[in-house]
Amino acid sequence: MIQIQNVSKSFKSELAVQNLNLEVNKGEILGLLGANGAGKSTTINMLLGFLQPDSGNVSINSIDTSKNAQDTRKLIGYIPENVNLYPYLSGLENLDYFCKLAGLNYSKTELEDYLTSCGLASDAHLKKVSGYSKGMRQKVGIAIAYAKKAKVYLLDEPASGLDPLASNELSLLLQKLASEGATIIMASHDIFRVREVCNRIGILKKGILVKELNSKDVSANELETLYLKFMQN
Amino acid sequence: MFQIIKNEWRFLVRSRIFLGISIAFISIMLLSVFLGNYQTQKQAQTHQNAKDHVRQQWVSIDEMNPHSAAHYGTFIFKPSNLLSNLDEGVNSVTGNVLRVEGHVQNEIVHSEASQMQAVSRFGKLKPSLLLQYIVPLLLVFLAFNSVSNEKQSGRLKLLVLQGAKPLQIILAKTLSVWLYGMLLLSLILFVYGLLNLQSLTADILARTGLFFLSYSLYYFIISGLTVFFSARWQNATLALTSMLGIWIIWTIFLPNILMSSVEKWHELPSRNEFQTAMKEDRSKGLDGHNPTDKRSLALKEKVLKEYGVDSVSQLPINFDGMRMQADEDYGNSVWDKHFGNNRSVLQKQKQSFQLGGIVNPFISLQNTSMGFMASDNLHHQEFLLQVENYRRVFIKMLNDKQTYGGSKTGDWGWKIDNAFFKSVPDFDYQPTQISAVISKYILDVILLFLWTILVVALIVFGTKKIKIV
Predict the structure, then answer these.
(1) Are A213 and A58 spatial neighbours (Cβ–Cβ below 8 Å)?
(2) Could you tell me the pTM of the whole model?
(3) Looking at the predicted structure, is the pLDDT value of residue B119 above 50?
(4) Domain A2-75+151-232, CATH
(5) Which of B113, B133, B294, B325 has the fewest CB atoms lying closer than 10 Å?
(6) Do A101 and B163 touch (CB under 8 A)?
(7) Which residues in chain B are contacts of A89 at CB distance < 8 A?
(8) Which residue, A212, A169, A220, A171, is CA-closest to A192?
(9) Domain ranges of chain A
C-alpha cells in the first residue's frame, strides 16, 4: 500500500532523508523510531504530498504522492502530535465540519457512531473541544480519518503527552484499525509503545534507515538497547 | 467554500469578546445614525424657519425703491442634505448662509465647524467616520491571523488533507471577514433608510446604492489584503503590523501629502489675491452709482440715441435703473471670469487628487463617499452657482422695475408697492441629480474595481507559493 523507493530529501544543504526504502502493506503498522531531526516528520510530509522528494519515489496505492497529491490525500488520515481542532466547536461539530470539507454528509447518529467507535465517550460528543484533553482530541482526529474511510493512517508522535490510559486506548484503536485493513505508519520516540502496537519497526538516524525489524523478534528491553546503540554510534 | 465561511461565522458568533466588541460598535454606529438624523432634521427645521422668516420680511415690505430693495437684499440658507447624515463631507466647513444683494457676490458664511467648541481631526461622529476609519480596522483585526493561526496550529494541513484547496481557504476567509464589514454597512444603511422612509427618492436610493458599492469594494480590498498577508507571512504579528502600516499610510499620510501636492500643482489664489483681482477688474467697468463715470456717459449717449431724445429727463424710462443693471452685468462678467477660474482650478485639483486612488484606494473611497452623498466640493460649487444665478434674476427684476416701472431718471424717492415684492420668486434650490454628476466619480469607482481585481490576483497567484508545512 505504501512504497518509499530510494527517497532522498534535503533542506538547503542539510540532508533530512537519505536513500530511504520502505514498504508497508495493507493491515500492517510500521513504527518509525528516531531522535528529533531523524527524518520521521519529513517522511510523513512526503507521504502527505506537502514535501517533494529530491530523488526517488513515494507512492500510496501505486499513486505517486508528488504528482497526484490530491488523489493520494483522499486515502490518507493524518493525526499529528497535537490535534488542534476548533475549540469553539464540539467534537461532533468538528467531525461534521471536516467531513463536509471532504464532501461527506453524515447524519448526527452516524457522526456519533464514528466518535464512539474511536473511543470518545458519548457524553463528550456535544461538549466544546476547548474542554477536551489531548487524548480526547486525538480520538476526534482519528474519527475524522475513520469517517473519511482512510486507507492509510499517518501518525506523527501521537502518544506524546498522553497519560498511560489514553496511550493504551490509542494503541488498541490503532490495532483495531489495522485489523480492519488500514495501513498505518506511526512516528514516535516511545520505544515501548511502538513495540507494543506495531508489526514492524524502522529506526531512523540522520535521515538513514539504520535498522528494520519485526516487533515480535525483539523484547522491549532488547529494542531499547538496540535503539540506544544506534543513537550513540 | 461555503462550509469554511459558515465555520468562520460560527467562531464570530460564539466568541464572547467578538460579540461584545460588535455589540458596542453597532451601538455606537446606530447612535451616530440617530444623532446624525436628529441633527439633520433639526438643521432642516432651523433653516426652514430662518428661510420663512427672511421671506416673510421680504414679502412684508410695504413700499420701497427697487434699488434700495436690492441693497436690502435677502439671505439664502444652504438646505440641509438628507444624505449628508451619512457623510457630511465639506458641509461642516463651507458655511451655510449667503447674503444676496446688488453689486456684490458675498461669500458663504457661518460654517458649523467655526461654531464648534472642539474640532476633531476626524470630524464629528458620523457614520462615514466609522465606516471609513473604524470598520476597516475591525476587519484587519478580524483577518490578520485567520490563515496564520490555521498554519501555526497545524489545522491548515488537516483542511488541505480533507480536500480544501489553499485558494479556497483564503478566499473563504476573505469573504467571511468581508461579509462582517458588509453586515455593518448594511445595518447602517437599513436603519438610515428606516428613519427616512418617507423622504426616500429614486435619486437618494441610487446615490445610496453607489455609496454601498464603493464601501463594498473597499472592504473587500482591506479584507483580501489582510488575509493575503496572513497567509504569506510566517507569523500573525507581521501581518497585523503590515496592515496597520498600510492603514496609517492610506488614511492619514497619503491623503494629506497628495492634497498638499495637488494644491501646489494647481494653486488657487488666496482670498486676498482673489478679492484684489476682482476689485481691480471691477474698477475697469461701469460704476452704477457714478453718473459722471466715463462708461456711464457712453451708455447714456447710446440710450439717448436709441430713444431719439437729447436728455435723460426726456426718456420714458429711468436711466438710473439701466445704469445699475449695466453695472451688474459687468460685475457678473468679472465674477464669471474669476469664479470660473477658481472652478477650473478646483476641477483640476479634484482630477489630480482622484488619480491618487491609483496608489491609495482610500482616496477613491473618500471621493465617492462624499460625492454620492452630495456633500463634496463639486456639489457645494453647484449650490453656489444656483445661488448666483438666482441673485442675478433677483437683482435684474429690481433693476428692471426701477428702469421700466414708471419712474423717471433721478427719482430715487420713487417706490413700488408690496405686490411687486410678493411677485419676486424665492430661491428654490434644485438638488443636483446623480445622473448629472456620476461621470465625475467614474474614475474613483474604476480605481476601486482595479484594486479589487489586484487583490484577487494577489490571492490567486500569491497563494500558490504558500507553504503548508
Answers:
(1) no
(2) 0.87
(3) no
(4) 3.40.50.300
(5) B294
(6) yes
(7) 7, 10
(8) A220
(9) 2-75+151-232, 83-148
